[in-house]
Amino acid sequence: MYLNKHFSEVAESYLFSDIAHKVAAYQAAHPEADVIRLGIGDVTLPLAKPVIAALHKAVDEMGDKATFRGYGPEQGYDFLRQAIQKYYAGRGIDLQLEEIFISDGAKSDLGNLLDLFAVNNTILVPDPVYPVYVDDNVMAGRTVKYMSATAENNFLPMPEDAVDADIVYLCSPNNPTGAAYTTAQLEQWVKWAKEHNAVILYDAAYECFVSEPGCARSIYEVAGAKEVAVEVCSFSKIAGFTGTRCGYTIVPTAIEQDGMSLNKMWLRRQTTKFNGVPYIVQRGAEAVFTEEGMKEIQHNLDYYRNNAAVIAAALDEAGVWYCGGKNSPYVWMRCPAGMKSWDFFDWLLENAHVVGTPGSGFGPCGEGYFRLTAFGDADKTKEAAERLKKAIASLQ
């Protein structure tokens, strides 16, 4: 037996596990403290009523011999793929049905897609970065390069001709910074990918939060992007499926290399290693795209957007620099008084009983920054924002 030695190269602890341990220890020592969590990006509102109705109906179907479903198609049922196809068409993006694959979430696919690429591919990721992008590749033994995302470039790194890589991860709107690429900026990335014979893995999990004109919701808004980009998306944030698990990935038929089709490779991979998302869950996901479903879901998204605006307003009053919060549920703030990320975490927990996410946990360029999430309860978010503002004022 030989173990994969590259697992020893992955950080021993996961960022959010460290946070959970710290908070648990603090609450054990201070049981009277009312701690408000603005850290982990989980949703708090329940599934939309049309989704629940569709889930119930599908459950009933599974209890009737005439409508029972066993193994489904690994790439997803056509009814859901067609709903996604229509969703993109409504934004002027034409997708073939065979390019749409249903999965159990974006996180899974962002790792599983790597099965299609040789280990000697060089990976390029932004810093700060969602840790999963890095860990997936370190586990496989790939070389990972970083591009700096800083306040100077609005936390939106752009391609450089001198930087060579084979696979590039882009997340927009970004986790953790909340920054969102414009279509014009993504045009430069598509151009770079073509010139460098690279592929872009585009994480669009937060596309539903984009509201400002010019900001892209899909990389396929860029002409020619289907020749170089795979887009991964999820129902977790748009519809609250964090615990229900469903997502989708677009693998264009136009991406080919050495006579091999990435689309056909992905289909082969899925039919070999994946048995598909449960029928019940896919029926629930289909209901997301109904008129009634989208109406209720937009109401939920507005709820989170308002939370982000409340946090942003508090930071404005406190005179703290931040980005995000407009096209994203995340607010990325600069730590006050020159504090380091984990120092500010401890200070904020002690002085305001508010939990956020230290920016350094997302990479060296995240040092000195802090992520707050808008996915909490509205009243608790308002309370947390007031505590945050008062605590920062005490430093001045």
Topology:
Elements: H1 15-29, E1 36-37, H2 49-62, H3 78-89, E2 100-103, H4 106-112, E3 122-127, H5 131-140, E4 143-148, E5 167-171, H6 183-195, E6 199-203, E7 229-234, H7 236-239, E8 247-250, E9 256-257, E10 260-261, H8 262-273, H9 279-288, H10 291-318, E11 322-324, E12 330-334, H11 341-352, E13 354-355, E14 357-358, E15 369-373, H12 378-393
Parallel strand pairs: 1-13, 3-4, 3-5, 5-6, 6-7
Antiparallel strand pairs: 2-8, 7-8, 9-10, 11-12, 12-15, 14-15
Helix pairs in contact: 2-9, 3-9, 10-12
Strands, total number: 15
What is the average per-residue confidence, as pLDDT, rounded to a whole number?
A: 96
**What gyration radius follows from the Cα positions, in whole Å?**
21 Å
Query: Which sheet architecture does the biggest sheet show?
Result: 7 strands, mixed
Number of helices: 12
Task: Give the topology string: H per helix, E per strand.
Answer: HEHHEHEHEEHEEHEEEHHHEEHEEEH
| Helicity level | 25-40%
What would you note in describing this structure?
This protein has 396 residues and is of the alpha/beta class. The protein is 39% helix and 15% strand. The protein has a seven-stranded mixed sheet, with helices on both faces. A four-stranded antiparallel sheet has the order 11-12-15-14. A two-stranded parallel sheet has the order 1-13. Helix 2 (49-62) packs antiparallel against helix 9 and helix 3 (78-89) runs parallel beside helix 9 (279-288). It starts with 14 loop residues before the first helix and ends with a helix. The mean pLDDT is 96.
